[in-house]
TrEMBL record:
SUPFAM superfamilies: NAD(P)-binding Rossmann-fold domains. It holds the Pfam family adh_short. Keywords: Oxidoreductase. Gene3D superfamilies: NAD(P)-binding Rossmann-like Domain. This is Oxidoreductase.
Amino acid sequence: MTIGTTPIPDQTGRTAIITGGSSGIGKATAAALAAQGARVILAVRDQARGRAAAAELGGLAESRPLDLGSLASVREFARTVDGPVDYLINNAGSMTATRRLTADGFESQFGVNHLGHFALTNLLLDQVTGRVITVSSTNHRKAHLDFADLQWERRPYRPFGAYGQTKLANLLFTRELQRRLEKAGSSVLATAAHPGWAATGFTMTTGRRVVDGALALGTRLLAQSPEGGARPVLSATVGDVPGGSFSGPRFGVRGPAALEEMSGEALDDDIASQLWEVSERLTGVR
């Protein structure tokens, strides 16, 4: 696989951890890195699927249990990681049509998509030698963080609103992590990416039959393959991109990887700092 027109460089001796790496964008990313010699750790909740994916990838691929909806599971996974990690790819995501809670009592989308990855990254950060890559979405553009009700306890629950909030949080986390890495004099980069519209098995649900039907039809007609969706993630992982950058398909929903601008609240440094402090308090991870 290439990223844009550039082949992925040799990855022999490198280690990549990919959350949600047993299917979709995560599996396609893992396959591309493994094909170039990387050791790939698939961090997934369903170990039957994880082991099957690792066997399919071959080489140095392996599966380890990780439930991002449980901080105890995140801590246990982090304890199993020995040695340096070249790439930590925060890829896994969740979307639900109704409000659900994680094992720790967080709204599930916020808990899995942001807080779980926030905790995982900070627990492993001393071992990361290359990059932290977080998969976001263009849904961040119209999203807003309501710090008075991050868990959707008082507002009427809106699935897309909750999902967009988590994807905005992913970008704010990336930018604040990059700022802190630079301040500490670290050479590690924090980058972000979005896959565009890709047919991965990840279901966007609103709870409204007509809207969900239109989304399913659009996926059949417009979506690119998981391999196509993985290109921006691979660009953010091994490409010549700066820290704090955001990679996506050149043509919005599909196409070769290119850098693009974040928008809205994603560029607000004060909001990024506030989110970091709230996330530390909620997860107990600093």
